[in-house]
Amino acid sequence: MTPVPAPGHDEGVPPTLLSWLTTLDADELSTCLRLRPDVLWGVPVADLEDLAERLEHPASVTHAITGLAAPWLAVLEVVTALGDGASVEAVARLLDGSTAPDSHDADVRAVIDGMISAALVVPGQGGVLAVNPGARAVFTAPLAFAPPARALLVGIPATELMKVTRAWGMDVAKRKADLVDAVAGRLADPVHVRRVVSEAEPEVADVLLESVRRALDRARTAVWTADGTEAEPEADDAPTPFDPVAFRRERAAWAWAVEHGLAYPTEPYSTSVTFPAEVFVALAPPRFCVPFRAQPPAVPTAPVPPRSLASAAGGAVTEWLGAAMAVLELVAREPLTLLQSGGVGAREVQRVARSVGATTDDVRLVLEIATAVGLVTASGRSLVAATELAAWRGETPPQRARALLRAWFGLPTIATVDRHADGRTRPALTSLAEVRDPTGIRAVLVSAAADLDDGVGIASTDALVEAVRWRLPLAADPWSPEWVARTWAEAERLGVVVDGACTDIGRAVLRGGPQDLEAVLTSVLPAVQRRALIGSDLTVVVPGSPDPTVVDVLDAVAVREAGGAASTWRLTAASVREALDSGLTADAVLSALETIGGTVPQPVDYLVRDVERRHGHLRVSSAATVLTGEDAALLAEVLTHRGLRHLGLRQVAPTVLVATLPVPHVLTALRSAGFLPVEVSDDGSPVVGLRALHPRTGADGTAALAVPDGPDPSRSPEVGSEDADEVLRRWAREQTAALLGSPPLPPREDTPDGAAQRLVRGEEGSHRNDLAAVEDRLRDNGLRLGAAEVRQLAHALVHGLPVSVRYRSSSGGVTVRLLSDLQLLGGSLFAWCHLREDQRSFTLSRILAISAVPGAG
């Protein structure tokens, strides 16, 4: 978009975002809305004033800059630091043009045009550029210098600004806005700043220049020297001794700078001062520049035969799906022990890996994905199979793989990272707090591979990381090489990438369509195998993906040795004994093997028959209760008593009986039959239970004794014993319904083209009258936000939509919460907090910001 000067501004005066929006036609406005889609979330945009307020909101600006490439980010910071003195030429001078000197000016102008299209930079008369006001709230210290002049001057009293303008010989009206414009405009002129410093005493000037040098050393991305090159800061751990002379000299220089308008107190009556960013820019060395690279770094590639991609991807998915089946079937048979602190410990992971013939990385990856899909779940201190596992096992291999691949792409952690940043072992199924956006890492890496031409793959992940950090510096800056390497290895393990090239599976995962992904998987995965190859060496091999019925048979009679492209089991004496222990006979075992593998080899038949001959020589049974007595005749009477048959009594010695029911049941039955048993402990001593007796008054008014053994089971629950939280939630819904009435259908969310055409025509949103009463109620109850934010919350309340809230708690901390199921209760917002996973109350007066969320409208 070519910069269009905003009307109504004198030459050299920064424009406003609203005045610039009025100059755009429908196509230009639609382009802006496509680049800033978050401003269309929630309540439809009412008019250009409403749109400007949304575009200037810090949350919207933050959403926009997180997706900016490094050159765009550098330009935005420079424009913010230059303040009112920003222009295309000034920005280009401050950016390093050594990487492409011939095209530097054109590259800078192209980036600025893009920033203007996204409403992050606004053009004005005479080539003046103004930064989006929301960027000043995001870049509180652009280029690691200090806030720009306008951000500082807002908090300075008008009387102090009048002193500055008089010292500079300016005749300015006494209005605060006029004073801010005058001072900010003059500070944005480097010639003026240098002229003021030149009038200072040499000692004062030296202190000011030293302050600038220290600011350059604190630069955000690198330490820039005077010639624009990067240099590592010198490590100096030795404490600097206090120098009273230097301290007094520095204070005197700061006082002079405040008196001459070059610095301002950080707080009222404070001795600490802050220099506006424009002063640092003006006093920086002539050759100082900010790193700027218009083109991304090259990523080395290597040839990859396209024909081999599909087969290699299919083989990778088949092998990993076999490992996943083995791990999940083991969890179904033997639940895994969870640590007290949560997660599955490293030893348990290693045990599972040895049992199924997989790697520990595979086990971690399977457990994370299966938990996300809901195939396994925690039950107390154990990880057990969920009911959904049976249905998942019955699906076809493409369907099973589709569910796992889609879950992997959205995992909230990098599953195979087994250690925290401090070196501590990380249990499986625990969060990796150091990684802020693992989904973003996957999307960026897989997209980078998908963007390559056919027939080539990425040859260096290190170079890929550098390219990604150029493309998404804010997101990728904290990524460690291990996170990238682990994510890349997971993608290769799942067949998403092969030899650095994105496969059809990876492209389908990026597109996100389940049917598309299943179709690709169907074309590369082998068919389900319902037959097994039973060898004379007691091994059983199932090539490809075994049918669940085959797996069930082999897991019941054999030991799994390996999975992957071909799954292998081995028949052993122990595995056959376990099958007989479960109630099977030798004939049943051999018949099941014949069903899946045809004629059973003779060594297998010998093994099964031999184990059967030795099976059951010793018999072990359970007894819940043991009865003993000295009178054998009495025990014989108990054994034959018809009323005690349900106890499962049997005689193991003349004076010993055993029962299958627990002690309390046996005691009750014996006493009901007229016997007088006594309970004894393991050492034979009687078990005595003392109970306190408390007097009470009987129905006839006489004294009686009562034993408080707890609630009487014969009594019905008291009326009104309903859960208090549920009562509160129902009351909140009733109160909100009485206030808002029945919620109408939410208005359809605007498209960029539709919203642009409506706004250019000046058509106002029809929702305003519907929300006016709710907006007034919110303001009356303490909500102190801008009109657009109040409207967003009213829209969410009326239509039952979620919102993002920036909130200051009673302790003073500030958090961002995603809230849904909103209810309005006087001066509080009652809602479901997704962070705490609970119903919470939020005081309206402590809400600092409101933002719509995607799809809320």
Secondary structure elements and pairings:
Elements: H1 17-21, H2 26-35, H3 48-55, H4 58-65, H5 70-82, H6 88-94, H7 104-117, E1 121-123, E2 129-131, H8 133-138, H9 149-153, H10 158-167, H11 176-187, H12 190-198, H13 202-217, E3 223-224, E4 230-231, H14 244-259, E5 264-265, E6 273-274, H15 277-283, E7 301-303, H16 306-333, E8 336-337, H17 346-356, H18 360-373, E9 376-379, E10 382-385, H19 388-393, H20 397-409, H21 438-450, E11 456-458, H22 461-471, H23 473-476, H24 481-493, E12 497-498, E13 501-502, H25 504-511, H26 514-524, E14 528-529, E15 533-534, E16 539-543, E17 545-546, H27 548-557, E18 559-562, E19 566-570, H28 573-581, H29 586-597, H30 602-614, E20 625-628, H31 632-640, E21 650-653, E22 656-659, H32 663-672, E23 694-697, E24 703-706, H33 724-740, H34 752-761, H35 768-780, H36 787-799, E25 803-808, E26 814-825, E27 828-833, E28 838-843, E29 847-852
Parallel strand pairs: 14-17
Antiparallel strand pairs: 1-2, 3-4, 5-6, 7-11, 8-10, 9-10, 12-13, 15-16, 16-19, 18-19, 20-22, 21-22, 23-24, 25-26, 25-29, 26-27, 27-28
Question: How would you describe the overall organization of this protein?
Answer:
The chain has 857 residues and is α+β, with helices and mostly antiparallel strands. The protein is 46% helix and 13% strand. The chain has 36 helices and 29 strands. The strands form eleven sheets. Strands 28-27-26-25-29 form a five-stranded antiparallel sheet. A hairpin with a 2-residue loop joins strand 21 and strand 22 (656-659). Helix 25 runs antiparallel to helix 26 (514-524). The longest helix is centred in the middle third of the chain and has 28 residues, at 306-333. The radius of gyration is 38 Å and the shape is elongated. Residues 1-12, 220-237 and 690-721 have low confidence and may be disordered.
